[in-house]
């Protein structure tokens, strides 16, 4: 794994003493829901439903990293590529900066301040830093799914996804990272009473019904 140069100015996480946004939907605010779950649990699939019905902007950390990896001239391209293939978590400075840029771009473009942040935070340092310098989350939507189900879904997705990590070897590593590194994030937010857990083994429609029930209960606004 390439080492990262912590002295590289592009890699310094924003140094602020307070978050960029306040939580919510007013001026200078942002409403953020983190979407977590193992690889293949159905995060992206369910986010598409929520974008349609709740006017969220969907930001997938994995998609942003793949985009940055492919951007001509990116100084992080090679690093991101090897982290993704190995199922490791890319250093948080890169991912937080990509998310912050995407949030600012969306606010500028449409004025929408409601974000589903999918596949993030996947490590405790990301969780703490994002809430410290960007915005505290409203809650985490956690898709709880058996490994066997996720494994089948990923191999099926791999037939057409073109992803470098939808193969047996990478999947095994990604599951391990999920259990060892990402589940502690879910447990951290659980202690704060900020986790909405949904059984993701069911079919797409059933899963979404449960999501909607929870969003109604938590009074997530439907409009921007
Ligand atoms: P994630 O973003 O969590 O990795 P995806 O949303 O990409 O997961 O879903 C992984 C694969 O499983 C995709 O091919 C998707 O079409 C499929 N899928 C998603 N949800 C379900 C479900 N509830 N039942 C069966 N297949 C599903
Ligand atoms: O969410 P997705 O499955 O698209 O993520 C693909 C990969 O991107 C992860 O396995 C990991 O290598 C990287 N990633 C990361 N940090 C995140 C999200 C994704 O390093 N917060
Ligand atoms: Mg996804």
What does this 3D model show about the protein?
The chain has one domain: Rossmann fold (3-Layer(aba) Sandwich), CATH 3.40.50. It is 50% helix and 14% strand. The chain is globular and about 45 Å long. It has 8 helices and 6 strands, in the order ββαβαααβαβααβα. The protein has 224 residues and is α/β, with parallel strands linked by helices. It has helices at 43-54, 61-70, 77-85, 92-110, 124-133, 147-161, 168-191, 204-217, and strands at 22-23, 29-37, 57-60, 114-118, 139-144, 195-199. Strands 1, 2, 3, 4, 5 and 6 form a 6-stranded parallel beta sheet that branches. GO terms for molecular function: ATP binding; nucleobase-containing compound kinase activity; phosphotransferase activity, phosphate group as acceptor. Residues 156-166 are annotated as: LID. Its cofactor is Mg(2+).
